[in-house]
Amino acid sequence: MKRLVILGGGESGVGTALLGKKEGYDVFVSDKGKIKEKYKEVLIHNEIEWEDEAHTEVKILNADLVMKSPGIPDKVELVKKIHKKGITIVSEIEFASKFTKATIVGITGSNGKTTTATLTHHILKQELSVGLAGNIGDSFAKQILQHDYDNYVLEISSFQLDDIIDFKPKIAVITNITPDHLDRYDYKFENYIASKFRIAMNQTNDDYLVYDADDEVITNHLKNHPVQSTLLPFSLTKTIENGAYLDKKNIKITIQNNQIIMPTTNLALEGNHNIKNAMAASTVAHLLKIRKQTIRESLENFQGVEHRLEQVLKINKVQYINDSKATNVNATYYALESMDAPTVWIVGGVDKGNNYEELFPFVNEKVKAIICLGVDNEKLMNTFGNMVDIIIETQFMSEAVKIAYKISEAGDNVLLSPACASFDLFENYEDRGRQFKNAVRNL
Predict the structure, then answer these.
(1) pTM value > 0.90
(2) Residues marked as binding?
(3) Where are the domains of the chain?
């Protein structure tokens, strides 16, 4: 019996444990932190051995295969020891994909991947049996065990791609690549870029790579490191023969001389970045033979993703917007770009080596006040202090929202778009977004 050791007892870890057990592995789950009660119950109920708040090395270094949670960096001592013993380490998507024959759509990118994955799933589910997994919802492994859909849309992070070996999506999507998570890539942007492109490393010319042709990072990398896949670019500015482009207010998608046209006038989601997300999702849907009418209707009735430019409430003619999912500068760029009223901007958190320069034009033009919400706001204060009349710092969401309420006037927006990770004051970006929404509702 092969021994499968799982590091991390979260959603992907427990899903992998269940699938591993069913496939005949001797499974052991080990988490250095505390395993949540709901996951402990699942492990106990399924008689899977586990430990938390410790890693017992003798029980780990005898593994045939290790599945490592994407949150654990390679530089951890235990991971080094596993590598040294020659034990293979894989991510959940690598492990799980071995046990399904489904068509896989893999979506990665620095921003837009959640919206694109959710939108793609929303279109496909109208006509196909399809699961949504990866960084979203129930784990990929658990869905294979419980449903085994014919198709999967997977939102995949660079950390998950770092530990793939044979994983090969039929359709890969790269939404964009901007500097993010560089702390995990020796502060070398090229390492992070290479990590994203692993999504196409096993693809052949029967597979497809859908990508943003307006993104110079992507196009330059493709020039210097060609892939085997059939390329289907999308663009807002160029005319594209094979792929998608914007012609006046219509998205035109051509695949093997078969063209469909989608008007953008009634898209449910606003902003240029969402036209791109719609292009990527529609290209996938067109490849999988979804009817044109279905694609169009789905784009028009899609509700968007929680914590991503989510309109919360209007109070005294001020619109409160939750964009807590903006954990990097590029995401906040899109948020500020889409503001069409004077904006009170709530920003801050754990800075991942951010460069705020690209935000300057928007801050000068649209932002009337800045509220810094973080443990350490010095960089923000120094960067933006001279650009706005009002800049205030706080460490409490409830206080940030009260200040915003005081300084906003009828017709303004109050935007939470932190451009930073959330772990200094919050459990995660969802917790941050929910606290914002609660504070707004309590005004």
Answers:
(1) no
(2) 109-115
(3) 3-90, 94-301, 310-441
